[in-house]
Amino acid sequence: MAQQPELDRGEDAPLDAAQATGRGRAVGRRVQRTVNFDQEVLDRARAAAAHLAAHAPEAGVRSLADIINPAVAERVAELEERFNSGHPFDPVFRLPAGRPRDRSDT
Predict the structure, then answer these.
(1) What's the pTM?
(2) Is 3 part of any domain?
(3) Where is this region: Disordered (predicted)?
(4) What sign does the CA torsion over 95, 33, 71, 73 have?
């Protein structure tokens, strides 16, 4: 009998400490997530993606994801270099819902 895949209950599901970190997620597959953007940044990125997809195929931008993925990868690399000696941070498969508590509250 085939093992059932674990259901992704989304970022709003309660975070169990045993599920927060680990290894073994598939690399390279695309997943859909909801994130919040500043409206102006999103508008500019959408306009760029639409224009480049229609008028500049040499840019290699066919969708909003083609702009966002490299930008996020570049920023994460900067953060890894600055705060983790250039190494990847430990994987976290689900983030707790809401904003992190202010450290001064603890």
Answers:
(1) 0.65
(2) no
(3) 1-29, 85-106
(4) positive
* CB-CB neighbours of 33 under 10 Å: 7
The residues near 60 (Cβ < 8 Å, ≥ 6 apart) are: 66
**Domain count of the chain?**
1
Spatial distance between the Cα atoms of 79 and 6, rounded to a whole number of angstroms: 30
Q: Are 95 and 86 spatial neighbours (Cβ–Cβ below 8 Å)? A: no
Distance CA(28)–CA(44), nearest Å, equals 27
Helix (H) or strand (E) holding 82: helix 65-83
> Is 69 inside a domain boundary?
yes
Domain region containing 82: 37-93
- Does any domain span residue 60? yes
Residue 44 lies in a domain: yes
